[in-house]
Amino acid sequence: MNSSRVLVAHLVIWLTAPSALMAEEVAPKKETSTITATASSWEQKAHGGWGDMPPERSLDGDLKTAWMAEGDGEWIQYDLGSLQPLKQVKLAFASGDKRVYTFDILTSETGKEKSWTTVSEKLKSGGKTVELEAYDAKVASVRYVRIVGHGNTSEKFPKWCNITEAAFVTK
Q1: pLDDT tens-digit profile of 10-40?
Q2: Where are the beta strands (DSSP E) in 12-132?
Q3: Which of 121, 42, 131, 26 shows the shortest CA–CA distance to 81?
Q4: What are the backbone dihedrals phi and psi of residue 41, each rounded to the nearest 5 degrees, phi first?
Q5: Global pTM?
C-alpha cells in the first residue's frame, strides 16, 4: 500500500516537472501566449498558389502546416506581446530533413521599420530534422522577432522559405 502512494507521488512529480522545465519557453500553444505573426507575403490559393499558408500557421503547434513565401528577403515577424529578454529562437522548416534553409534573425523593441537590429546573418538550418532547431539570439530587451528568408537547397523550390513552427526561449 505504501509503495502505491510513493508511485503515485512519483508520477505526480513526473507529470508536473516537464511543464515547470518548459516555463521559460514562450510557445505558441500555451494558454498564456500572446504571440502573433505577420509577414511580408505568403502563399495564397487565390493568387494561384497551392493553398493558403499564412504566418499564423507557424504558431499552430502542427509541423504539417507552415508559413510559406517565395523570394529572397521575404520575412515573417513575431510579436512576443511585451518587452522581454530573448535567449533563443527555435524554428522548424518544411522538409527540414532534406533541405538547408538560409535566414537572418532580427529583433526590435518597437517593430518600426528603422528599429531593427540584426542578431544573426545568413544562418543555416541543419538539414537533418523537421523538428524545432535552436538558434542563439541573446538580446536584453525585445518584443518583435523577424526571420528573413534567403531560400533553401531544394533544386525544385530554392527561393522558398517555409517555417512550420516557431518558439522563443526567454528569461
Answers
A1: 222 223 333 333 334 554 444 345 899 999 9
A2: 25-26, 36-39, 67-70, 75-93, 101-108, 117-124
A3: 26
A4: -170, 175
A5: 0.81
